[in-house]
Specification:
The complex is a heterodimer. Chain A is α/β, with parallel strands linked by helices. Chain A is built from eleven helices and ten strands. In chain A, the strands form two sheets. Chain A has a six-stranded mixed beta sheet with strand order 6-7-8-3-9-10, sandwiched between helices. In chain A, strands 2-1-4-5 form a four-stranded antiparallel beta sheet. Classes of the chains: A alpha/beta, B mainly alpha. The interface between A and B is medium-sized, with 28 and 22 residues. Bound molecules: adenosine-5'-triphosphate and magnesium ion (MG).
């Protein structure tokens, strides 16, 4: 354990990170910082590179340049499952519920790396307490849940992993407006009650900025703007120019 | 013989045959599940399993005898040894090809099949190897029907292995992870699962089941041959597809159905045993026409 409190405060720090797919460059060298206990939001139009940023942090996409430092340790060359085991939990776009596995099995297998059976069981109880619908549907095939329930399952799965840093990719995608608000409340609650640090990607900029402490705006694989969420919220031109609608 | 006796007889024969098919089909379907490869070498691993079981029994029969006790032990040793061989083949031959075009890895599987066959051909000179055991000819008479103890032990052992497998895939973390890897590699990685390790476990388990079948078949039929894996490989593949490739209960069901159909097929006047292989593949075509995903297979649609 390091005793330097200033450094302790930064959970994740990206410096000059570039990444892409084959010859396509999707990130052109970005700097980004997430502090402990914060919600940081990553905004930008379609194709701006938001998903790629999260995938690069979780190791699904290899960084071609730069460093990704998690609590003082460079994880840029680590494998995705090793990064996940360090507590960086990525809930991908589209939820990716494992079809053919029941709701309960989806939760249990998410805690694969948790060797302590008692800890797994207590986490399962916590998830069921937090999402009673998952408890009620535990024996059902996870892919048969409704969109909102699947989102709860996806978040429940993340909680089974004991996240230190949660990467959420458009958790409200495809949900009815009421469920979008519900999802955002869950995100807020996780952050406030459990102290979970969150990096949130959202299409709905207004909502995200209401929740977040700090925000980044991505454009064409570059950070276009960064500021406290309260400041970004004030700037109507930003909301209109980059975030599609005010 | 009356009709009902013939039926009872073929039922028993079909169960025995179906047990072998099911055990081999299980590995086929599990391996297909995790890396979407039709492992054409799988039947040959059944063959190697027979030979390793035979060698193991020769080594230990002095101490434990060569009744069912000795055969069980030899079977376990063969399962472990050939299971490891399966893992080795995956690491050396398939692993480097996982991101290559599908056809390359299929051709690799054919090559592995040829290597295994030819290695055993070279070692045995292409001769049949007699698999001596002390299995008796005893059994029980149920009225006019005779069921040998060997048949009973064999079917019970196969059933026991399948129950154990079912427990493994539904009640253990490794088993669940195996099913998860069959659905979504990247999601598994994000959940902290070492996908490559799970693929290794799958090859071990799948190959070990084929080795168990090989040892039992060798002991039951009393002989081994370097080419004995070819046809059963095709049949097991057929059984896996009939049941729905990728589905574990499907492979068990497909194996049993195929075994029963074949043994009953030989009784149809005018068809006879010469036609029994035609029978298997005709059923395959029929199932594929009526239900392309197999009896218990699911379509791939809802993947997002
Ligand atoms: N698998 C891929 N192969 C090739 N190019 C890709 C791939 N995934 C993304 N890209 C490209 O990389 C760029 C960034 O994509 P990314 O998915 O990160 O955007 P995004 O900000 O998440 O967009 P959205 O809001 O639509 O989810 C885009 O130009 C996209 O076309
Ligand atoms: Mg995206």
């Amino acid at each position: 354990m390091t005793s330097d409190p200033a450094r302790d405060d930064v959970v994740l720090k990206l410096t000059g990170v570039a990444a892409g797919y084959g010859r396509i460059q999707a990130l052109g060298g970005i700097d980004l910082e997430v502090r402990r206990g914060q919600i940081v939001t990553l905004l930008g139009a379609n194709g701006a590179g938001k998903t790629t940023t999260l995938k690069t942090i979780s190791g699904l996409v290899r960084a071609t340049a730069g460093t990704i430092v998690l609590e003082g340790r460079d994880i840029a060359t680590m494998k995705p499952h090793e990064i996940a085991r360090l507590g960086v939990v990525h809930v991908p776009e589209g939820r990716r519920i494992l079809r053919g596995l029941t709701v309960r099995e989806n939760l249990e297998v998410a805690a694969f790396a948790v060797r302590d059976g008692a800890l797994r069981r207590s986490r399962l109880e916590q998830v069921f307490a937090q999402f009673p619908i998952l408890h009620a549907r535990q024996g059902q095939d996870g892919s048969l849940l409704s969109g909102g329930e699947q989102q709860m399952l996806a978040i429940g799965r993340a909680l089974m992993q004991g996240p230190k840093l949660l990467l959420l990719d458009e958790p409200s995608m495809g949900l009815a407006p009421k469920l979008v608000l519900e999802t955002m409340k869950i995100v807020k609650r996780l952050n406030r009650d459990e102290g979970t640090t969150i990096l949130l990607v959202e299409q709905n900029a207004r909502l995200a900025l209401r929740l977040a402490d700090y925000g980044y705006v991505l454009e064409g694989g570059m950070i276009r703007m960064r500021n406290a969420a309260a400041q970004l919220r004030e700037d109507r031109s930003i909301v209109q120019a980059y975030l599609g609608g005010g | 013989m009356s009709l009902s006796v013939i039926i009872a007889h073929q039922l028993v024969n079909g169960l025995v045959l179906g047990s072998f098919y099911a055990l081999v089909a299980l590995g086929y379907t599990m391996i297909f599940g995790v890396i979407k490869l039709l492992n054409f070498a799988h039947g040959d691993l059944y063959m190697v399993g027979g030979f390793v079981g035979f060698l193991a029994l020769s080594a230990i029969s002095g101490v434990v005898g060569s009744g069912w006790g000795g055969i069980f032990l030899a079977m376990l040793l063969s399962m472990i040894g050939v299971g490891c061989l399966g893992v080795l083949i995956e690491r050396i031959a398939y692993h480097p090809m996982l991101h290559a075009p599908r056809l390359s890895i299929l051709i690799t599987a054919l090559a592995v099949s040829l290597v295994l066959q030819n290695a055993v051909l070279a070692l045995t000179g292409g001769q049949y190897t007699a698999f001596h055991t002390d299995l008796g000819f005893g059994g029980i008479h149920l009225g006019p029907i005779f069921i040998s103890y060997n048949q009973m032990v064999l079917v019970a052992t196969a059933a026991g292995l399948m129950v154990a497998l079912e427990f493994f895939v539904t009640h253990t973390q490794y088993g669940r992870a195996m099913r998860a890897v069959a659905i979504d590699h990247d999601m598994c990685r994000l959940m902290g699962i070492d996908v490559s390790a799970i693929i290794g476990v799958t090859f071990f388990v799948g190959t070990a089941l084929a080795a168990a079948a090989g040892t039992m078949a060798g002991a039951y039929y009393g002989s081994l041959w370097y080419f004995m894996g070819f046809l059963i490989g095709l049949k097991a593949f057929t059984a896996a597809v009939i049941g729905g490739i990728g589905s574990i209960p499907g492979a068990m069901l497909g194996g049993l159905i195929l075994g029963l159909l074949e043994s009953f097929g030989t009784q149809i006047p005018g068809i006879g045993s010469a036609w029994k292989d035609v029978f298997a593949f005709a059923v395959l075509i029929l199932v594929l026409v009526l239900k392309p995903t197999g009896l218990l297979g699911k379509s791939e649609q809802e993947r997002m």
